Amino acid sequence: MDNVDGKQARRTGTSSGLGELFEYVVTSMARLVRFPPYFRTLTRLTHGAEGLIIACIIMIISGYYGPKTWTYRIADLIGHPELFGDYSVRDLWVPILLVSFLFVHLPFCVRNVIRTRRRNRLPVAPVFLEWTPIIVFTLSIGSWLYSPYSTLMKENRLVLFCLTMSFVFGRMTTKIILAHLTRQPFPYWTVMLAPLVGGALLGNLPRFGMNAVSATVELWYLRAYLAFALVVYFRWAFLVINSICGYLGISCLTINPDKASPGQVKEGLSNGVIPDGKMLANGTISRKRK
């Protein structure tokens, strides 16, 4: 279904910049803290279908054979104990993801970016500065979770942590999409990254000569971070959606029967362009004076 939503919107005459933005919001939230969607967002040349297909296959296998399938020794499944030892599929899952991302997915994204920029006679180097948000995001998560002084892993707070990061990652990627749609400068920073950097510092205080915080303090910091992320994210989403819907004269998640007939798309809205005005990255619309 992720591959047909755009086609359906264009066939019903309801395609707009809001639809493209909303699709990426939902996708980013569903994927939580996966890196490939971020680089696909930057390239705008590939789609996330391959990841969704792999996820569906994994769920089908888990449903048919049971979740214990992933805990079996690889050597018992395919042999060669001298190569796999006592490792299970679950043990190798993270290394498999990292290797496939670093040596398969990412190189193709970079190649597509370089090829497109050169074809359009644009400089290549500035594009890689757009990796700044994801680098800060990744290093902060790693520094916080894997710090020997952090209690999040020991106290099994990963569900709360991943839920919080889903809003941070969703805000980060959708700001990029909104800037793309409105032809605004690339958003190198979002305020939702600040508490993440703070959490990385909080989990590594002994490295700076200070005492480590208790598990209770760290837990309440993470809870406060989640509350902050919820308020910031939904306030921003409310402003952006209301601004677009108000300008286009449409209702969010509702198809007006008086709109264009199937197969027709309103001029200037199919690609997110707003005629006689410009929508800013914060969701407000600047109209041209006549």
From TrEMBL:
Source superkingdom: Eukaryota
Localisation per UniProt entry: Membrane
Gene Ontology terms: cellular component: membrane
Claim: Transmembrane helix is one of the keywords in the record: yes
GO BP annotation list: lipid biosynthetic process
Keyword field: Membrane, Transmembrane, Transmembrane helix
Sequence intervals crossing the membrane: 48-66, 92-110, 122-146, 158-174, 186-205, 225-250
Similarity-based family: Belongs to the CDP-alcohol phosphatidyltransferase class-I family.
PANTHER family: CDP-ALCOHOL PHOSPHATIDYLTRANSFERASE FAMILY PROTEIN, ETHANOLAMINEPHOSPHOTRANSFERASE
Protein name according to UniProt: Uncharacterized protein
Source organism (scientific name): Trichoglossum hirsutum
Organism ancestry: Eukaryota, Fungi, Dikarya, Ascomycota, Pezizomycotina
